[in-house]
Amino acid sequence: MNERTTLLLVRHAPTPVTRAFRFPLDEELDDHGRQLATGLTGKLRAVRAVTSGARRCRETAAIAGFPDAEVDPDLAELDFGTWAGQDPHDLWKQDRARLEAWYADPASDAPDGGERFDGLQQRVVGVLDRLVATGERTVVFTHGGPIKAAVLHALDAPPSAMWRIDVAPCSVTELHGRPGGGLTVASCNVPVGAVAP
């Protein structure tokens, strides 16, 4: 099993909360999100599909042509605890020092009642290792945080670099890997309209 494995990491389509740049909730796509997700239909060639259990990811997978995608709970977004659904600008006014520290180093602290970034990255790396070991071209429907964690892992970059990576809704990030051989980033944040079948 020395052949290269391709992983296509797809961020879910937008929801009202994510479009407002709030910390996300587990909500369904709206009409705009569904319309954007249809742009993925027929463009994601893969043997296997896996998805986060979040409604927005499962719905994006189904619209893109993968209604039977396997749910993997380790693909969940970072647990934002009490910050979920809130506007970062409001949190900045309430507890600037805490939010500032988290932005400076997301692995040093966690949102109130939530998860540290290194916990998220550990989950994601486990998923990547399992998928690479299958040797199958796989499409993965997940969130911005897990995709950033995957890219940082491939580049051996620190958690604070996550703020330098853009992952737009319905964008595709392509990773290549071999068991025991690490990962390479083939492309990152490719917009839905630019994804070639």
Short synopsis of the structure:
This protein has 197 residues and is of the alpha/beta class.
Mean pLDDT: 92
Number of helices: 7
Radius of gyration: 16 Å
Strand content: 15-25%
Which properties best describe this structure?
197 residues; 6-stranded mixed β-sheet; 34% helix
Write the layout of secondary structure elements.
Blueprint: E1 5-11, H1 16-19, H2 31-38, E2 48-51, H3 55-63, E3 70-71, H4 88-94, H5 96-104, H6 117-134, E4 138-142, H7 144-155, E5 172-177, E6 183-190
Parallel strand pairs: 1-4, 2-3, 2-4
Antiparallel strand pairs: 1-5, 5-6
Helix pairs in contact: 2-3, 4-5, 6-7
Question: What do these coordinates show?
Answer:
This protein is of the alpha/beta class and 197 residues long. The chain is built from seven helices and six strands. The protein has helices spanning 16-19, 31-38, 55-63, 88-94, 96-104, 117-134, 144-155, and strands at 5-11, 48-51, 70-71, 138-142, 172-177, 183-190. The protein has a six-stranded mixed beta sheet with strand order 3-2-4-1-5-6.
